[in-house]
């Protein structure tokens, strides 16, 4: 249970202390994850949920960069780019990044960059990030 709580916390769904107990906060985090990932919202950490939950860590193709690369968000005036919890358009939104804002690129995962922005680490689509 601690591994599930830890992963849900990494993805921004679990806000409690990692204690290994399946209580209200854990169930709410599981439900939120299920909703965001198109799974049945029953609050139960099924084998299917656990497989999906850990697939981005186990099967990830993330390649880290040798040194942090500074970059700029380019989405057009008045628009924003979502910073996501994982390299998936349906994962939890961590922040909104507006045109011209600065980010640090930490790695790449397919069509996504892992970036640091506003004290948070998450994923953004490469096509909207211009490296310096």
Question: Could you characterize what this model shows?
Answer:
It is a single chain. The protein is an alpha+beta fold and 132 residues long. It has two domains: 2-58, Muramoyl-pentapeptide Carboxypeptidase, domain 1 (Orthogonal Bundle), CATH 1.10.101; 63-131, Roll (SH3 type barrels). It has three helices and seven strands, in the order αααβββββββ. The strands form two sheets. Strands 6-5-4-1-7 form a five-stranded antiparallel beta sheet, with no helix packed on it. Strand 4 (102-109) and strand 5 form a beta hairpin. It is elongated and about 45 Å long. 29% of the residues are buried.
The side-by-side strand order for the widest beta sheet comes to 6-5-4-1-7
Specify the biggest β-sheet.
5 strands, antiparallel
- Just name the CATH architecture of the largest domain: Roll
Q: Give the tally of structural domains.
A: 2
Instruction: Give me the CATH fold name of the largest domain.
Output: SH3 type barrels
- Report the top-level CATH class of the largest domain: Mainly Beta
Structure classification: alpha+beta
Query: Given the C-alpha coordinates, what overall shape results?
Result: elongated
Question: How many strands appear in the DSSP assignment?
Answer: 7
CATH superfamily (homologous) name of the largest domain = SH3 Domains
Q: State the helical fraction.
A: 25-40%
Query: What is the distance, rounded to the nearest whole angstrom, between the alpha carbons of the first and last residues?
Result: 42 Å
Count of discrete alpha- or pi-helical segments spanning 4 or more residues: 3
